[in-house]
C-alpha cells in the first residue's frame, strides 16, 4: 500500500484542476497512488450546502442516502465538530445501530479500515477527507504511520481547491450575520462610535472588534465602511 | 492528570469545566486586568469557546481544575489572526500543521508542575497529530514561566509594555523540548503519552477491524 508518494506530483495535479470533474479525476488517481480501495471527500459550507465525492460503489452511496445513514454513521458523528485526524478504530462502534450500519457497509464493499481528517475552513465551512481500505490492523497502522502527515496536507490542499471552486461558483453567496454581528453593524450604520457600540452592547471593544471583523469577512468587504454598505444593500441590517 | 476534552465533552466533567471558566475569569480579569467578558456565573468565555475548541485541562488530585489551555486549528477562525493579526505583520497564520493555543491559565492553587504539564500536552499534540508548530497569545508574565518550564516561543510580535504586554509567538515542534519539559514537570513521557492515547488513540479502542 502506497509505499512511495510523490507529494510534488499530487500537489501539481491538484493545482492544475479547474473544475469539479477534474478534481474527481485527481481523487481517483490519488486513490490509485495511495493504493487504497477508497477515497471520500465531503464538504459542508457555512450555508449548509453539501458536496461530496466518493469512490465507493454507487449501490452503497445510494443505500447510504436512502437510509439517511449520515445520522448514525460513527465516522460522521465522531468527526463533525472535531479537527484532529481520526482512525476509525478509535470511534464508538459498540451500539447496536452502529454495528448494523457497519455490517451493511462491509457487505457493500466498504473496507474495514478507515482514516478520516476533519477540516475547518473559513466561515463555518467543514470538510471530511477519508481513506478507506481492507487489511489487518498491523498493515493499516504502518500505512498511517508512513503517510499520516502527507494525508493531512493532501486533505487540506484538496479542500483549498474545492473552496476556490465554491467561491467561483457562488460569488454572491449571501451569508447571514449572527444576531450580535447584526447589532454591531446596525449601531455602526447609525453613526455610533466603536466605544458607544461596545457600551450599548455591554461588550468590550476587543470583542466588538471580533464581531466587526467576522461580519466584514462574511460579507467579503474590504473594511468596516464597505461592510456596512454591503450589509445595508443586501438587507441584512435595517436602519 | 491531563485531560483532553472538546467543548462538547465538558458536560461529562461539570466541576472541572466550571473551575476552568472561573479560573480564567480570575486570571484574565481579576489578576491581569484584561478586557475580557465575565458572565453572571463568574465565568470568562468568549466567542472562540463557541467553536467547539479542544481544552487541555490539568486535573488536580481532588478533581479540581489546576490549569488549562484552549486549542483551535489555524485553518478556521482563530484569535491570533482575528484579534492580534496586526502583531504578525498582517500575514495570517493559516496552516493545517499549525494549531493555536490561547487562554493558558493557572488556578491560584495550582500544584507546582501544572504549567509544565500543560506545556507538555502541547508537545504531545504536535507529536500525535503531526504538527510543525503551535501558535499562541500570551502575557508578559508567561515569558518567564515558559523559560522555567523549558520551552520558550519565538516571539512574532508584541504590543503594550511591562505587565500589560501581550505577545504572539510560535513554538516549533522539538522532541528534545518535549523531553526536557516532561523531565522538569516530573511526568514520565510514557504516562503523558498514555493520557493522550486515552483521549484520542487506541487506548479507548473499540475493536471492529476484522483482522483480514
Q: Can you tell me about this structure?
A:
The complex is a heterodimer of chains A (about 240) and B (about 210). By secondary structure, chain A is α+β, with helices and mostly antiparallel strands. In chain A, about 55% of the residues lie in helices and about 15% in strands. By secondary structure, chain B is an alpha+beta fold. Chain B has a single domain, classed as Aminopeptidase, CATH 3.40.630. Chain B contains 6 helices and 7 strands, in the order E-H-E-E-H-E-H-E-H-E-E-H-H.
In short:
The complex is a heterodimer of chains A (239) and B (212). Chain A has ten helices and five strands.
* Shape estimate of chain B: globular
CATH architecture of the largest domain in chain A: 2-Layer Sandwich
Largest sheet of chain B: 7 strands, mixed
Largest sheet of chain A: 5 strands, antiparallel
Q: What topology, given as strand order, has the largest sheet of chain B?
A: 1-2-3-4-5-7-6
Q: Give the class-level CATH name of chain B.
A: Alpha Beta
Strand content of chain A: 5-15%
Amino acid at each position: 500500500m502506497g509505499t512511495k508518494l510523490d507529494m510534488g506530483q499530487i500537489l501539481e495535479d491538484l493545482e492544475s484542476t479547474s473544475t469539479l470533474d477534474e478534481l474527481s479525476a485527481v481523487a481517483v488517481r490519488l486513490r490509485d497512488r495511495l493504493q487504497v480501495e477508497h477515497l471520500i471527500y465531503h464538504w459542508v459550507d457555512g450555508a449548509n450546502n453539501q458536496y461530496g465525492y466518493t469512490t465507493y460503489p454507487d449501490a452503497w452511496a445510494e443505500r447510504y442516502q436512502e437510509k439517511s445513514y449520515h445520522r448514525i454513521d460513527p465516522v460522521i458523528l465522531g468527526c463533525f465538530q472535531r479537527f484532529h485526524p481520526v482512525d476509525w478504530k478509535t470511534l464508538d462502534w459498540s451500539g447496536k445501530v452502529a454495528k448494523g450500519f457497519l455490517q451493511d457497509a462491509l457487505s457493500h464493499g466498504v473496507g474495514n479500515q478507515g482514516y478520516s481528517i476533519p477540516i475547518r475552513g473559513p466561515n463555518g465551512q467543514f470538510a471530511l477527507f477519508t481513506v478507506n481500505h481492507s487489511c489487518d490492523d498491523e498493515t493499516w497502522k504502518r500505512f498511517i504511520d508512513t503517510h499520516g502527515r502527507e494525508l493531512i496536507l493532501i486533505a487540506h490542499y484538496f479542500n483549498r481547491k474545492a473552496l476556490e471552486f465554491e467561491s467561483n461558483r457562488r460569488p454572491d453567496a449571501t451569508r447571514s450575520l449572527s444576531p450580535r454581528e447584526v447589532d454591531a453593524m446596525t449601531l455602526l450604520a447609525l453613526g455610533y462610535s466603536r466605544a458607544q457600540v461596545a457600551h450599548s452592547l455591554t461588550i468590550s471593544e476587543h470583542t466588538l472588534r471580533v464581531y466587526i471583523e467576522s461580519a466584514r469577512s462574511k460579507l467579503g468587504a474590504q473594511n468596516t465602511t464597505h461592510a456596512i454598505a454591503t450589509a445595508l444593500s443586501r438587507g441584512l441590517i435595517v436602519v | 492528570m491531563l485531560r483532553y476534552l472538546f467543548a462538547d465533552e465538558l458536560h461529562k466533567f461539570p466541576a472541572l469545566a466550571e473551575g476552568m471558566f472561573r479560573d480564567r475569569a480570575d486570571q484574565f480579569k481579576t489578576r491581569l486586568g484584561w478586557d475580557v467578558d465575565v458572565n453572571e456565573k463568574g465565568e470568562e468565555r468568549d466567542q472562540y469557546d463557541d467553536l467547539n475548541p479542544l481544552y487541555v485541562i490539568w486535573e488536580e488530585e481532588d478533581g479540581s481544575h489546576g490549569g488549562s489551555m484552549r486549542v483551535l486549528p489555524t485553518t478556521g477562525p482563530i484569535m491570533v489572526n482575528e484579534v492580534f493579526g496586526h502583531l504578525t505583520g498582517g500575514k495570517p497564520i493559516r496552516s493545517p500543521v499549525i494549531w493555536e493555543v490561547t487562554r493558558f491559565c493557572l488556578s491560584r492553587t495550582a500544584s507546582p508542575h501544572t504549567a509544565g504539564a500543560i506545556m507538555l500536552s502541547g508537545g504531545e499534540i504536535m507529536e500525535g497529530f503531526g504538527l510543525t508548530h503551535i501558535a499562541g497569545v500570551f502575557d508578559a508574565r508567561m515569558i518567564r514561566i515558559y523559560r522555567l518550564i523549558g520551552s520558550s516561543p519565538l516571539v512574532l510580535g508584541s504590543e503594550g509594555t511591562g505587565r500589560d504586554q501581550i505577545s504572539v509567538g510560535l513554538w516549533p515542534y522539538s522532541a528534545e523540548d518535549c523531553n526536557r519539559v516532561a523531565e522538569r514537570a516530573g511526568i514520565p513521557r510514557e504516562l503523558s503519552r498514555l493520557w493522550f492515547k486515552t483521549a484520542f488513540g487506541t487506548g479507548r479502542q473499540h475493536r471492529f477491524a476484522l483482522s483480514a
